[in-house]
Design goal:
alpha+beta, elongated
Length: about 210
């Protein structure tokens, strides 16, 4: 009887010890999981392969780790290619930034995108020069096609991050211009100029302070 009692007590001791170890392991796992989830929920926890794999203007990689309701960790890798649709020289790129800032620095993102698109639509049109710089500084019958290029405003502007974003979205192929080749601000244009726009061109739409034509 004493031997049986001793065996039973030994088994209970082993079982209790095993149970304590299991509880400890589960507790450590849960605490570690909470810490990992917290870390992964912070903006700093990002998998960024951009610098390792490609130049900044070409590819952007964003990895995000999320915890689903079951507690399982799921890794999502989103690879967003940012290849430019237009092959611009560095000079043309800088000219485009400055003319967009000069013409639409007070507009929203879409307004700036529209001005950038008009410039690039002209570059792609047989009726206009073939580079951004030539388009921006073109004169027609002595009249500047983009007045800030000759008024001095083009040289005075400071290009903003908002303008950079707008221009790069257009360069990546985002086009909301409906093919517009002209724009004008009726509020500031003289009546003769606006009469020419109204009589010779096709009105497309208005956005912000500009009207767009084809």
């Amino acid at each position: 009887m004493e031997a049986d009692w001793g065996v039973r007590m030994y088994k209970k001791y082993i079982l209790a010890l095993l149970l304590i170890n299991i509880i400890a392991v589960v507790a450590v796992f849960n605490i570690t999981g909470l810490k990992v989830n917290h870390i992964m929920a912070t903006p700093a926890f990002k998998l960024n392969l951009q610098e390792a794999l490609a130049p900044e203007e070409l590819v952007s990689h964003d990895g995000l780790v999320q915890a689903v309701s079951s507690g399982q960790l799921v890794i999502f890798y989103e690879v967003v290619e940012k290849k430019w649709k237009y092959d611009l020289s560095e000079e043309d790129y800088q000219v485009l930034l400055r003319i967009v800032e000069a013409e639409a620095g007070g507009e929203d993102i879409e307004g700036r995108m529209l001005v950038a698109s008009v410039v690039l639509n002209r570059v792609n049109s047989d009726a206009f020069p073939d580079t951004v710089k030539e388009v921006v500084f073109q004169r027609e019958n002595g009249t500047a096609q983009f007045s800030p290029a000759y008024s001095g405003r083009y040289d005075r502007v400071t290009v903003s991050e908002k303008t950079i974003e707008a221009v790069e979205r257009v360069l990546c192929g985002e086009d909301i211009s409906e093919g517009a080749l002209y724009f004008a601000s009726r509020k500031y244009a003289n009546s003769d100029s606006m009469s020419w726009f109204d009589e010779k061109l096709t009105f497309l739409f208005s956005h912000g302070g500009h009207e767009f034509f084809y």
